[in-house]
Protein 1
Amino acid sequence: MKVCAFAGGVGGAKLAAGLQDVLPPGDLTVVVNTADDFDLWGLHICPDLDTVMYTLAGISNPETGWGLAGESFDALSMLERYGEETWFKLGDRDLATHILRTSRLRSAETLTEVTAALSGSLGVESTILPMSDDPVSTVLETPEGRLEFQEYFVRRAQRDEVLGVELRGIESTRPTGAVLAAISRADTLVFCPSNPVVSVGPILAVPGIREALASSSAPKVAVSPIVGGRALKGPADRMLSSLGHEVSATGVAKMYVGLLDGMVVDRIDEEERAGIEDLGMRVLVTESVMRDAEDRARLASETLEFGAGMVAR
Ligand code: FO1
């Protein structure tokens, strides 16, 4: 059973890991946001691709969800001695990923090819695909002015109110053949519990992706990243609010109207079921907070069964 999942960083990677655990090897493809990619010291950093790759390889840092387990930061300390700003915590082993990616991109490989090579070397059997090989950068409008995504997210610890989101370059991006093929051959399409504005939003904004999704008859289900009116991780709740969206599973469902067949919501949000159904979606109510590998696998199985139930209807 071929599954194509759409993910941003930490929350998305967790469900992707659950899907990988319950599916036969090779049946999962994860299409990942690249709109928070950026360059630092000449290196091309792809935080969401790496978070998904390290998580699926079983080597991610369990405390942060990003970066590598047991990482050291000696190179960063040396950069600090040279007077560089070191707010973006690049670990020593993580640097190897960025060095190799940058070098291969400079030798004219695509990001899709480089990602396949890196994840293959780490033993990942699922396919990890950047949403596009073309660059996009997220710029946030805030009361302090416009901020690059990592400046907002890491350097300023997401404290600024987000008044607008620009996906710079998105109109010139194209979906890759690999992404289009993964969508068209998928039996189920899963939208992971990632930020609908800055993680799933950019993927859906790549020209051609919405059309590819619309022409697939596979069930499309999302797991809500908002539980009990709060984001499980990151600034999604405050961002939804400042951008005028409802901060609830229903608010997320409204953002996906016309795209999804079903939403998975947490038990705590059970009373939102009827309202989401009124939007034309089916609803699965379950425990959606993933605390460990067992939770991830259970939520993944339930989400896939939920999708399969729609086909049988
Ligand atoms: N997130 C942080 O909050 N602080 C960091 O210092 C940080 C470093 C970092 C290094 C490599 C990497 O792949 C990701 C890293 N992240 C860090 C996470 C990342 O920037 C964000 O989680 C995403 O961009 C949002 O999805």
Note: The first helix runs from residue 10 to 22.
Protein 2
Amino acid sequence: MVTPIVDVSGLSSEHQGPVLTPLDAGYDTARISFNALIDRHPPVIARAATPQDVVASLQFAQSAGLPVAMRGGGHSVAGHSMCDDGLVIDLRLLNHASVDVERRQVIAGGGATWRDVDTPCVTRGLVMPGGTFDTTGVAGLTLGGGLGHLMGVHGLTLDHLVSADVVLADGTLVTASAGNDPELFWALRGGGGNFGVVTAFEFSLDPLPVVFGGEIHYPDTHLRQGLRLYRDLVEDAPDELTMMAYFREGFLHITVGARGGNPRSLRALDALRANLPIARDRLGMTSYLQIQVMQGDTPFGIRHYWKSQFTDELSDDLIDEIVDHYHARTAGSISSVLIEPVHGQATRVPLDATAFGRRAPGFNVSVLGHWRDPAGDDAEISWVRTGAARVAARNPEGGGYLNYAAPDEPQERVRAAFGVEKYARLLEVKRRVDPENIFRFNHNIRP
Ligand code: FAD
């Protein structure tokens, strides 16, 4: 495919950040995103240095008839932050985070990562619930949900959003909040990048807790028993204790993030240590910043295909299904299965308060394909699809977590993730602010 060369001189003259075309040095580096399966060549990558740059790019895109993709932290596994035939607004230069200690709020740029935000918050004794990796982008994670180790007490990331500065498709800059365009504010909290370019997020913060936790690993002889133990402990866990489970390289890893010293959390920790053979024990006193890096780095350059499904319970049968499927991956595969709880405060926010589609207690089961060699594409993608179908077969009504969804997620799964009423409400907002579907590189609300 030949990438067309677009004359960007009009845009470059008023744009403070660099505007890149395939002829420019830095273009190939700028188009790399997390998932190496995605190799796209947009005609224009505009690296915004100010909100006015975003306005200029959108006006240029409108006049050139180009759709627009947005790149925040670049971690969309579906590859939505890069496109082949449009203009990419790259927000990485807008990565500021300024903390207001008195008001307990932080304003984060539309291209900030969690590391950019967590560090200045934590050094001031404050925190907000992010995801579980400090390298992912604040933007995509917040607009799609935000499952992390503080969800039991503090809810989802999007529950902490106070306002968002958004540039709409026609170049209008608005601040959406509960008091100003509440429908747009509702839609932004779960509806993803469908509505405009967020140049700044304002979040509320909480006092930084004392944290203990870490990871414990069980050997491949005890995956089934380990997952049952995990399920039993999660179902009995206090809000202060959030545990996630994943299979990686043959081991069952259980991550623990616990606030304070609730005796029930301590008993759960004892149970993790007492009941099964342990391959590695890294539990103890820790800090929020350490919790955010305990799963290591997931570098760019690996191929990924992920699918997720919410489920009300982890029955013994479903656990057997998950373990059997994990054992059925191709020899030497580094692919994994991740199980996250949805619990505590994340389940107490009324379902219609935000666009996010799931508030019932339960689990998010994700089958995650990771591999390096393109020759593995068919086998790994097929393994993920089969595994996700096995989980979905037990939850025919439910949707999945769109932040983990695959590039080819069918439209009916996008609708199912929101449910009929929410999808209709999102559609109304989309038709008002982006009737031409300029922002179509996402799990799309089709106007
Ligand atoms: P990008 O690829 O930059 O963007 C993703 C989507 O958001 C695109 O549709 C894009 O158009 C839109 N977007 C980006 N920036 C903006 C903006 N400024 N304004 C409007 N729209 C924008 N999720 C969790 O909930 N918890 C986790 O613990 C977690 N861990 C993860 C770990 C890894 C290694 C990865 C790859 C993903 C993880 N995720 C997690 C999923 C994560 O929430 C999504 O991948 C999310 O899309 C990442 O956001 P981003 O800004 O990095 O992505």
Note: The mean pLDDT is 95.
